[in-house]
């Protein structure tokens, strides 16, 4: 990976020097959240970078796909990063962090095992905050065309003439 | 050239809706020289406009006006304002239907006689028999170009079908094939043959699947007798002081109210909107809703017993490639009460893309139990299970006076509770569907709950006795001689089969009756 300018206008080295790790895969800076390898970064507007990192982790814990990078989860929750949503989202994250503190952790992001984070989410799965985030992910995550190939899904086929000559009946093991 | 009629022209037959019922009726009447105004709530979208993308297409075509729900069905919990997935566009739900074109079985026209007393079910024999409808089934199959009829070959099986067929044969099922489909296996009626695109539910971009949008409607318009008005949303049917209907009020494209005079009115807005319109047309003469002296308008709502099974294998299937409904097992469609329920069900392949699979595989589910299933999407095969559900008087469409649509009209509330027979049939179907995939080595199977209803039936049902239903054997309202119901809401019972072929057959038959009644000056 070269040191070209990233999405927040910083080189990879600059970005890493201006950020701190919040969990295994994410770092945050003054106004951005990025992957710990700095292959992607996202600026935040209304939400704090730590709040955005918490949402990204929560999104992954709700719909964990090990082959899907944080970047796609980040895109799926980016819509909450605005002044209108900020109050509700911060209150929801505060409740997540409080639940983590009740289990002896500094905050939700400090809970190391997915299983424990999921236990926290199970306890709050009927809350409007959880349902808002989960419901939004159904389209926010799975309707990103960029993630479809990760599942093998090929999307639109009309412009390629359908599958009549491209394997509609190519199964060879049945 | 398409016709153009004056709003005050009271010689026209007004048809509300342009789908399998209304679209076919409009063309059939126009062919007979009858003047027709068809009012379509949605816009006109043709194959070049259809989109191979599930959610974008949904936004383009689906009926998303507000509705409310109640009852113990899971759709009410997961999709409380989307009880039904139907289309608001010229062609109605023939735009997104899968194309399965099956005749009802003889006994399915007389279920009260054959099934006997089923507690809680409001069963009734149809006032017509299979023999009455058979000549119209013949004509409907020719119109639609149904495969495996009239010498038209079946479609080739895709990957999803091959898995399904192999499992079915291992289980000993005998009636297994690639279906009777209104999808061209070779060019027919100026429509292309199927290119195995795989987005049948999003509108066929090749026009290989029959739809009234690009078959019956343009043929009707070419007669010079049919005018289709799009974005014309009917809100009320009006009548004279004799109790005969004489016009409809609709909101036009600009949101302005218009009134079209009519000699007769045919309602074909699908089984949620059709009863809603009759109920919203209540008047001093018809205080409980138009044509509702029986109290049956909106009642006996049926949606078919539905469910799905998805199977995951250790190797790729790629079920999304090719025809969505690519084959059928009919062995379970018979009436065999030894299985613990009356009526039967069909098993039909189905696939969803990743976006819809995420939404419908197990709505509300999350965590690895859910996501590991999607991780195996490429190795998944899928089938839909569709069977006869029991009509119940309490399953009904009512108007919700607390919630109004964009025109200020009360919306439809859809109440549905599963009947014990529906539950017993669904459990049997899940077990058999699972067995089909396990027979060919599925490593995981997922019994999947019903989707929002695509088969909405029965809310203005046919009956021999006016006390028991809304319309007679011609779909003519018992109470109002120049008012007709022309969609699946006239079904007395639902049968196991996908309803479109029967809706089309009834529309062809009804057109003959209406033209005859007009020529006799009876209406």
Description:
The complex is a heterodimer of chains A (174) and B (523). Chain A is α+β, with helices and mostly antiparallel strands and 174 residues long. Chain A is 43% helix and 7% strand. Chain A has seven helices and four strands, in the order αββββαααααα. Chain A has a four-stranded antiparallel beta sheet. Chain A is globular and about 55 Å long. The mean pLDDT of chain B is 97. In chain B, a hairpin with a 5-residue loop joins strand 6 (233-239) and strand 7 (245-251). The two termini of chain B are 27 Å apart. Chain B has helices at 22-31, 54-61, 74-78, 111-115, 130-144, 159-171, 216-222, 270-280, 354-360, 368-375, 420-438, 500-519; strands at 13-16, 36-39, 68-70, 176-177, 226-229, 233-239, 245-251, 257-261, 264-267, 305-312, 328-329, 345-349, 380-387, 396-404, 410-415, 444-448, 483-485. In chain B, the strands form four sheets. In chain B, strands 4-11-12-13-10-16 form a six-stranded antiparallel beta sheet, with helices on one face. The longest helix of chain B is centred in the last third of the chain and has 20 residues, at 500-519. The chains are: A alpha+beta (174), B alpha/beta (523). The A-B interface holds A 62-65, 67, 118, 125, 134, 138-139, 141-143, 147-148, 151-159, 161-164, 166-171, 173-174 and B 51-53, 55, 156-159, 162-163, 166, 194-199, 205-206, 315-318, 320-322, 353-355, 357-359, 364, 366-368, 370-371, 374-375, 377-378, 440.
Present the secondary structure layout:
The complex is a heterodimer of chains A (174) and B (523).
Chain A: H1 12-17, E1 20-21, E2 26-28, E3 32-35, E4 41-43, H2 49-62, H3 70-77, H4 83-102, H5 114-123, H6 128-140, H7 148-151
Chain B: E1 13-16, H1 22-31, E2 36-39, H2 54-61, E3 68-70, H3 74-78, H4 111-115, H5 130-144, H6 159-171, E4 176-177, H7 216-222, E5 226-229, E6 233-239, E7 245-251, E8 257-261, E9 264-267, H8 270-280, E10 305-312, E11 328-329, E12 345-349, H9 354-360, H10 368-375, E13 380-387, E14 396-404, E15 410-415, H11 420-438, E16 444-448, E17 483-485, H12 500-519
Helix pairs in contact in B: 1-7, 1-12, 5-12, 6-11
């Amino acid at each position: 990976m070269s040191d070209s300018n990233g999405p927040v206008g910083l080189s990879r080295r600059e970005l890493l020097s201006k950020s701190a790790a919040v969990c295994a895969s994410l770092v945050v800076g003054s106004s951005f959240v990025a992957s710990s390898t700095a292959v992607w970064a996202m600026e935040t507007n209304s939400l704090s970078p730590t709040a955005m990192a918490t949402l990204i982790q929560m999104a992954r814990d709700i719909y964990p796909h090990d082959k899907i990078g944080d970047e796609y989860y980040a895109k799926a929750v980016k819509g909450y990063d605005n002044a209108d949503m900020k109050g509700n989202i911060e209150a929801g994250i505060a409740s997540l962090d409080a639940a983590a503190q009740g289990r002896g952790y500094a905050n939700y992001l400090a809970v190391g095992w997915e299983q424990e984070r999921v236990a926290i989410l199970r306890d709050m799965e009927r809350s409007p905050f959880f349902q808002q985030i989960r419901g939004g992910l159904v389209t926010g995550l799975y309707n990103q065309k960029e993630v479809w190939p990760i599942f093998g899904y090929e999307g639109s086929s009309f412009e390629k003439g359908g599958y009549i000559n491209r394997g509609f009946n190519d199964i060879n093991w049945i | 050239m398409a016709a153009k009629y004056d709003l005050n022209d009271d010689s026209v037959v007004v048809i509300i809706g342009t789908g399998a019922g209304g679209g076919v009726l409009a063309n059939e009447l126009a062919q007979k020289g009858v003047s027709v105004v068809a009012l379509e709530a949605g816009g006109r979208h043709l194959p070049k406009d259809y989109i191979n993308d599930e959610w974008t297409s949904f936004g383009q075509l689906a009926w998303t006006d507000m509705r409310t729900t109640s009852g113990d069905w899971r759709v009410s919990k997961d999709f409380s304002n989307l009880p039904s997935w139907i289309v608001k566009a010229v062609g109605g739900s023939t735009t997104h239907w899968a194309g399965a074109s099956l005749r009802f079985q003889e006994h399915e026209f007389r279920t009260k006689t054959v099934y006997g007393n089923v507690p809680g079910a409001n069963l009734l024999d149809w006032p017509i028999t299979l023999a009455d409808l058979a000549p119209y089934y013949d004509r409907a199959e020719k119109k639609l170009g149904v495969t495996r009829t009239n010498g038209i070959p079946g479609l080739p099986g895709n990957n999803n079908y091959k898995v399904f067929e192999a499992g079915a044969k291992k289980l000993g099922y005998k009636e297994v094939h690639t279906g009777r489909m209104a999808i061209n296996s070779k060019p027919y009626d100026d429509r292309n043959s199927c290119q195995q695109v795989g987005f049948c539910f999003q509108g066929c971009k090749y026009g290989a699947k029959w739809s009234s949008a690009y078959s019956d409607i343009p043929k009707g318009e070419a007669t010079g007798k049919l005018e289709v008005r799009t974005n014309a949303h009917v809100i009320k049917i009006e009548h004279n002081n004799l109790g005969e209907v004489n016009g409809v009020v609709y909101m036009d494209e600009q949101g302005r109210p218009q009134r079209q005079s009519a000699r007769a009115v045919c309602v074909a807005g699908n089984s949620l909107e059709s009863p809603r319109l009759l109920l919203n047309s209540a008047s001093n003469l018809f205080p409980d809703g138009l044509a509702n002296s029986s109290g049956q308008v909106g009642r006996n709502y049926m949606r078919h017993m539905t469910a799905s099974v998805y199977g995951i294998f250790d190797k790729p299937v790629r079920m999304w490639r090719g025809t969505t409904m690519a084959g059928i097992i009919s062995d379970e469609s018979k009436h065999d009460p030894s299985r613990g329920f009356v009526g039967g069900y069909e098993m039909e392949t189905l696939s969803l893309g990743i976006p819809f699979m995420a939404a419908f595989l197990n709505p509300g589910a999350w965590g690895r139990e859910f996501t590991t299933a999607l991780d195996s999407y490429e190795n998944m095969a899928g089938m839909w299970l569709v069977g006869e559900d029991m009509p119940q008087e309490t399953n009904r469409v009512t108007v919700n006076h607390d919630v109004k649509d964009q025109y200020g009209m009360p919306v439809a509330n859809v109440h549905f509770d599963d009947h014990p027979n529906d539950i017993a049939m669904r459990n049997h179907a899940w077990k058999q569907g699972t067995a089909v995939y396990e027979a060919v080595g599925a490593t995981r199977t997922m019994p999947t709950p019903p989707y929002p209803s695509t088969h909405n039936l029965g809310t203005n049902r046919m009956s021999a006795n006016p006390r028991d239903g809304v319309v007679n054997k011609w779909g003519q309202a018992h109470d109002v001689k120049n008012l007709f119901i022309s969609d699946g809401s006239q079904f007395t019972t639902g049968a196991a089969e996908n309803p479109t072929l029967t809706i089309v057959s009834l529309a062809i038959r009804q057109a003959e009756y209406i033209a005859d009644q007009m020529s006799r000056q009876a209406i």
